[in-house]
Amino acid sequence: MAGHGARGRSGGRPTLEEVAARAGVGRGTVSRVINGSPRVSDTTRAAVEAAVAELGYVPNTAARALAANRTDAIALVVPEPETRFFAEPYFSDMLRGVGAELSETEMQLLLIFAGSDRERQRLAQYLAAHRVDGVLLVSVHADDPLPDLLSQLEIPAVISGPRSEAETLPSVDSDNYGGGRSAVEHLLSRGRTLIAHITGRLDVYGAQRRVDGYRDALRDAGHEVRESLVEQGDFTEEGGRRAMTELLARHPDLDAVFAGSDVMAAGARQVLREVGRRIPEDVALVGYDDSAIARHMDPPLTSVRQPIEEMGRRMLDLLLTEIADRRPAVSRGLERRRVVLATELEVRASS
């Protein structure tokens, strides 16, 4: 057995990965033990503590006293206007998941909105002063400069869904492609043939993947993919209304709609009601998120559930691992960590 002052395999100070390998557990588990989380079995805790002692690893809690640049705070950054944050259940569910996981640590959570250029500049100055130990980025658009800024500043960060296939930051997402596909396959199984899609903002990678799932489900079932049946929305209720109006103008005979969020589905439903279309007799309707909106709609809305609270918990778990390691993923040559959680279709009366 290695003595207390043993060096890691790299010859330098032992790393979190080496402790994890010695204990036979994942990095996140080591991070939880070191941060005193109760969500670890006694057996696992003993194995990690033994590995820490054998390798002479300086745990995060001890390092905290040595490192003057620790703030014991993380930021949940939302690059959206506050109005959208409070209007969409997605954000509150994400916040709930992060909060539940964070409550087991000594760290504070800051909620920061960065929906305007002025707010982004203020945030950049705040982050440059290293006032937080890490950042959770939620609802990031493809052209957002924030992720690259965080990489430059070497601030540990985790993103709630990659900006593209080439994302460099660790990310936690749901299976948007599979979710979009299951929605359309369900509508096809109900005998619907003219299925429209209201997309989310297409500078959001998850929205693009839902469109890919929609198209592939139609193609694989032998249906023509007609771009005139796809209308871009923006994840808002008004966007859903506008898109539904456009789709009906082009295809008054459409018999199903897959909306990229429950909020947009609610807007689409209003328009369908106004023009006398019955749901689901004339037009079947499917949403996405399986939020409270879906359950309380009349008729109740079939929707794709993504485990948003779990996504929040997993994001924080990844971030705590990044912080405990103290080297951002990019400087490690990116041990690429992209967590993708399964989605599930909740079938209700609207389809």
TrEMBL record:
UniProt-listed InterPro entries: HTH_LacI, Lambda_DNA-bd_dom_sf, Peripla_BP/Lac1_sug-bd_dom, Peripla_BP_I
GO molecular function: DNA-binding transcription factor activity; transcription cis-regulatory region binding
Protein name in the entry: LacI family transcriptional regulator
PROSITE patterns: HTH_LACI_1, HTH_LACI_2
Keywords: DNA-binding, Transcription, Transcription regulation
Coiled-coil residue spans: none
One Pfam family this sequence matches: LacI
Originating species: Streptomyces longwoodensis
Domain HTH lacI-type stretches: 14-68
Superkingdom of origin organism: Bacteria
